[in-house]
Design brief:
- Strands 1, 2, 3, 4, 6, 9 and 11 form a 7-stranded antiparallel beta sheet that branches. The chain has a 4-stranded antiparallel beta sheet with strand order 5-10-7-8, with no helix packed on it.
- It has 183 residues and is α+β, with helices and mostly antiparallel strands.
- Helix content is 27%, strand content 40%.
Length: 183
């Protein structure tokens, strides 16, 4: 199964209730600290470098990045409260004209959540032949192991908050083992 949005509706209510504050934190960072906080993704999928794609890692490997609490206190607090939070949270910025080619993640034990922040016009996420359009303050959850791609034909930077979630079909023991193995 590729799309898991409905299975997270109750858990995501808390995130969406804080969307105004999260949006403000992210846009302040994008507008005021872009050159300091954001780095090119580079060679992310094979040997082909994806140009015009930048990110700011807020939490990686279950550790909050140095200084990130200063810029994203509400975002961090809100996402860390999610029972199924996997431990990776970042902001993705895709410049106009950029294309993230069809690819898939390495693992089937985690899902990925995207929340639309800004610059979402004429930018599409394609998974299993379905075209999904980001909307400001709305989210979708998908299985990162499913093939997907992004096409950005808009005229503004597309800003999306992305974080991973444990697959809902995992048991608590399996989640505990994955956390132990990945440390």
């Amino acid at each position: 199964k590729s799309i898991w949005t409905d299975e997270f509706s109750i858990e995501m209510d808390g995130v969406l209730s804080k969307f105004g504050e999260i949006h403000k934190e992210i846009m302040n960072a994008v507008e005021k600290e872009y050159r300091v906080l954001f780095d090119p993704i580079g060679k992310h999928y094979g040997d082909k470098e994806i140009k015009n794609w930048n990110s700011c890692h807020i939490i990686k490997d279950r550790k909050i990045g140095v200084g990130m609490e200063k810029y994203f206190p509400v975002t961090i607090q809100t996402i860390e409260k999610l029972k199924s939070f996997y431990g990776w949270l970042f902001i993705s910025i895709l410049e106009p004209g950029a294309h993230i080619p069809r690819h898939r993640g390495r693992y089937n034990h985690k899902l990925t959540c995207h929340i639309g922040i800004d610059g979402l016009d004429d930018c599409y996420f394609i998974i299993d032949g379905k075209k999904i359009k980001w909307e400001r303050g709305q989210y979708f959850v998908f299985n990162d192991f499913s093939y997907h791609e992004v096409i950005h034909n808009g005229d503004k930077n597309r800003v999306v908050l992305i974080f991973d979630l444990f697959h809902p079909e995992l048991t608590n023991e399996e989640i505990k083992q994955i956390k132990y193995i990945e440390i």
